[in-house]
Amino acid sequence: MIDRDLQGIGMTSRRTRERLAQRLRDQGVLNEDVLKVLVDTPRHIFIDEALSHRAYEDTALPIGFNQTISQPYIVARMTEQLLEAGPLAKVLEVGTGSGYQTAILAQLVDQVFSVERIRPLQEKARKRLQRLKLHNVMLRHTDGGMGWPDKAPFDGILVTAAPREVPKELLEQLAVGGRLVIPVGDEHQTLKRITRTSETEYETEVLESVRFVPLLGGTVR
Ligand code: SAM
């Protein structure tokens, strides 16, 4: 759990986050463990100061390099979809971005491996996660379409940028019984949850329409 001192100035932002959590509950987010972690986690520190007054709006916000911190609703939804069948030990996140989704996952699973293709974003995220004393996170600067083969298999994989098609490397790096939550598509994207049911079989559920930045190849220094 994140230190109370780091949760926000006084209790003001905690109360604001409680209101945000209630709004997400009203929109259908059911997992109370996820909502509690959302209340404990100061989103304002994951955003540049000029925009931090908008941190508790339920909206995506720019974080530089044409990228965004995801909307709280989508962070909560994807996390609850990943965790639906129970707690997970080892999770891969593709697209660290601001580090906010990483911080949420780090409080709900044993170990988070998170990859980001834009080095300066990854470095900022690292500092924020250290500030929150979330030490069960390992970050890597790489093209996440390839996953993180050395650390595979993963019990869960959560992707925060949309490929046109599900990368086969990510499917291969799922443990049997593991779940991949991923936005897929171009103009029209859908959020999918893919469960590896055996060595060779996968089951796909289509969850809802979403709008994500594209999953791009290569890295930026
Ligand atoms: N969870 C993040 C957050 O809330 O801040 C989401 C950030 S943004 C919606 C998606 C991120 O995915 C961006 O930071 C982008 O650079 C990253 N990304 C896009 N393609 C990638 C790839 N192939 N490998 C790793 N990261 C990638």
From TrEMBL:
Signal peptide: none annotated. Transmembrane segments: none annotated. It comes from the Bacteria. Keywords: Cytoplasm, Methyltransferase, S-adenosyl-L-methionine, Transferase. InterPro entries: PCMT, SAM-dependent_MTases_sf. It holds the Pfam family PCMT. Its EC number is 2.1.1.77. Gene3D superfamilies: Vaccinia Virus protein VP39 (3.40.50.150). Its main location: cytoplasm. It is found in: Cytoplasm. The active site is at S70. It catalyses: [protein]-L-isoaspartate + S-adenosyl-L-methionine = [protein]-L-isoaspartate alpha-methyl ester + S-adenosyl-L-homocysteine. Catalyzes the methyl esterification of L-isoaspartyl residues in peptides and proteins that result from spontaneous decomposition of normal L-aspartyl and L-asparaginyl residues. It plays a role in the repair and/or degradation of damaged proteins. Belongs to the methyltransferase superfamily. L-isoaspartyl/D-aspartyl protein methyltransferase family. This is Protein-L-isoaspartate O-methyltransferase. The lineage of its organism: Bacteria, Pseudomonadati, Pseudomonadota, Gammaproteobacteria, Oceanospirillales. The gene is pcm.
